[in-house]
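Run Transposase Tc1-like domain-containing protein through structure prediction, thanks.
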Amino acid sequence: MHTYIHTYKLNVRMGKKGDLSNFERGMVVGARRAGLSISQSAQLLGFSRTTISRVYKEWCAKGKTSSMRQSCGRKCLVDARGQRRMGRLIQADRRATLTEITTRYNRGMQQSICEATTRTTLRRMGYNSRRPHRVPLISTTNRKKRLQFARAHQNWTVEDWKNVAWSDESRFLLRHSNGRVRIRRKQNENMDPSCLVTTVQAGGGGVMVWGMFSWHTLGPLVPIGHRLNATAYLSIVSDHVHPFMTTMYPSSDGYFQQDNAPCHKARIISNWFLEHDNEFTVLKWSPQSPDLNPIEHLWDVVERELRALDVHPTNLHQLQDAILSIWANISIECFQHLVESMPRRSKAVLKAKGGQTPY
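Sure, done. The structure for Transposase Tc1-like domain-containing protein is below.
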């Protein structure tokens, strides 16, 4: 035994961090039962005298060599029951501050906790402070209409959605206001030029564009010089929508999607679509449903690419040229993947019962 223990001691001479394994505790008990003193056992095994004494006492008292110490350090002030209580407080008020959560938790509790403990507990539970995701406010009536749309198209496959041409308008600003910018300054440096962020009214102007695409190809992107009214939209429909639909869907099996903007619902627009209903169909669209329109994600692509430019546009003409260039270079995999997500989007609306979805 002494030869074996001597060999083992060479492996643990560098010291032991944390609690001992069951095997190591058994070696301690074996050494003591063999007649070695605490000091001799400590020297032989390479553990401290305190460790040798503690392990052997535990064995004498309980007859076990397995560790009874589950964890070291201070006992957690918020146990499993307390975490469930804190979870209910979070569910009841997602916008509650750390101070409010701590105050509400301490009500009726024998042992109160501080804000630091609340913060640590929330992180352990997986709760982190985040900016809320912005979604449109959906009325009860429009929730029902969204649900009706999702039910009507829940059996549409990707092949069905390939027959839809998507459209929308978007506006891109020349300058962006970033509310997340933070600086470090002293109390009296609030007006120091290096501590200021300049702003321009209405973002320094912007460029509005109208675009359309389908699973097969990107459609035209049309800059809109002024406010889009029914007359201007009629020109877009006749000059761009019509040739795109007749070219991409010569069998008249295509659907044209547009939202419910006032200029889209004008009488002259409705009459024009009626005159051409033998060539393609206007998809009946549900209100307040940008999450169902994949072109919204293409606008996000354009926005990200604009912000990533090495040389940012300094005037509206440069901004328009940059937008058109980015749009023309969107990969086919990008917009086809968006169309292929439509069955999942419809299922998400059904699951949310017409409410907001992650899209």
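Residues 132 and 271 are 42 Å apart (CA to CA).
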